[in-house]
């Protein structure tokens, strides 16, 4: 019997109703919403056996290494890069050395995995600071506390897969590589304030603050660049967790906006 089937067997009307109420309240309390609706509307998370998870890792690793090789050649070979049809402003920015090796520290592979058939369907490589890591961790906490999950845990060992620590970890690795120091940076989370995923900014801000790292949330249009320093809310910041899409930033603010100027000057 599959893990999902065993979980479903526990879904008595009373336990399902109590779990649904608990999940709804937990999401509203933690700000787990997309726009104005609850982020999750089902009572079962995705289960994955340890062996399946290790298999997924073994298959994703070579793919990411292939992406890295393509990137490395594309950056240094304009003729090879031409096949990707970059716009003029992308050609300008691709020549900018970010000061660290990994060009996309917080990327995400979107795929459909079917362990029973060993199929793995890749739908997108989301390489530009994707949303979801903070939501995933908070939902894991909410699910672990469900009456239904507590009953399931009587007979099964449950191991959540934290995502936010990985995001913060690679951001700090990039900062240490860029700065050459181990000094904690001041962090700015930048995106338009009207995006439906804005509540996740608060989750990441809480996570940074819990680590003793200053963190500010701001609209990129309110950033300032003076004396080769980027300022957010009047405070100089060192590292930008850029949630805003670069295409939108260029479209609305141009290549001369403070954030892009700071990056191009490696400040």
Shape: globular
Structural class: alpha/beta
C-alpha-based Rg, rounded: 21 Å
**How large is the count of helical segments?**
11
Mean of the pLDDT scores? 92
> How many extended strands?
10
Low-confidence stretches: none
Determine the strand fraction and express it as a percent band.
15-25%
> Strand order across the biggest sheet?
6-5-10
Structural features, described:
The protein is built from 11 helices and 10 strands. The protein is an alpha/beta fold and 267 residues long. Strands 6-5-10 form a 3-stranded parallel beta sheet, with helices on one face. Strands 7-8-9 form a 3-stranded antiparallel beta sheet, covered by helices on one side. Helix 2 runs antiparallel to helix 6. The longest helix is centred in the first third of the chain and has 27 residues. It starts with a helix and ends with a helix. The mean pLDDT is 92.
What topology does this entry show?
Layout lengths: L2 H7 L3 H18 L2 E2 L2 E2 L11 H27 L1 H4 L6 H7 L13 E7 L4 E8 L6 H12 L2 H6 L11 H16 L7 E4 L7 H13 L4 E4 L4 E4 L2 E4 L2 E3 L1 E4 L3 H8 L4 H7 L3
Parallel strand pairs: 5-6, 5-10
Antiparallel strand pairs: 1-2, 3-4, 7-8, 8-9
Keywords:
3-stranded parallel beta sheet, 267 residues, 11 helices, alpha/beta, single chain
State the gist of this model:
This protein is 47% helix and 16% strand. It has helices at residues 3-9, 13-30, 50-76, 78-81, 88-94, 133-144, 147-152, 164-179, 198-210, 246-253, 258-264, and strands at residues 33-34, 37-38, 108-114, 119-126, 187-190, 215-218, 223-226, 229-232, 235-237, 239-242. The strands form 4 sheets. It has a 3-stranded parallel β-sheet, covered by helices on one side.
């Amino acid at each position: 019997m599959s893990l999902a089937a065993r979980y479903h067997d526990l879904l008595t009307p009373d336990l399902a109703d109590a779990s649904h109420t608990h999940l709804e309240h937990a999401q509203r309390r933690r700000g787990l919403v997309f726009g104005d609706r609850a982020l999750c509307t089902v009572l079962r998370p995705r289960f994955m056996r340890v062996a399946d998870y290790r298999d997924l890792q073994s298959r994703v690793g070579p793919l990411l290494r292939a992406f890295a090789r393509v990137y490395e050649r594309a950056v240094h070979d304009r003729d090879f890069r031409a096949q990707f049809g970059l716009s003029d402003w992308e050609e300008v920015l691709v020549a900018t050395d970010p000061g660290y090796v990994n060009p996309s520290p917080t990327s995400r592979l979107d795929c459909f995995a079917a362990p029973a058939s060993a199929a793995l369907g890749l739908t997108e490589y989301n390489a530009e600071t994707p949303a979801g890591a903070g939501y995933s961790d908070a939902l894991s906490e909410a699910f672990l506390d469900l009456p239904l999950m507590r009953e399931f845990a009587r007979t099964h060992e449950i191991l959540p897969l934290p995502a936010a620590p990985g995001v913060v970890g690679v951001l700090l690795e990039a900062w240490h590589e860029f700065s050459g120091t181990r000094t904690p940076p001041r962090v700015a989370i930048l995106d338009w304030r009207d995006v439906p995923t804005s509540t996740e900014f608060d989750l990441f801000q809480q996570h940074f603050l819990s680590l003793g790292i200053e963190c500010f949330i701001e609209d990129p249009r309110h950033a300032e660049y003076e004396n080769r320093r980027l300022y957010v809310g009047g405070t100089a910041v060192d590292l930008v967790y850029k949630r805003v899409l670069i295409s939108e930033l260029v479209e609305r603010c141009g290549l001369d906006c403070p954030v892009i100027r700071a990056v191009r000057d490696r400040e």
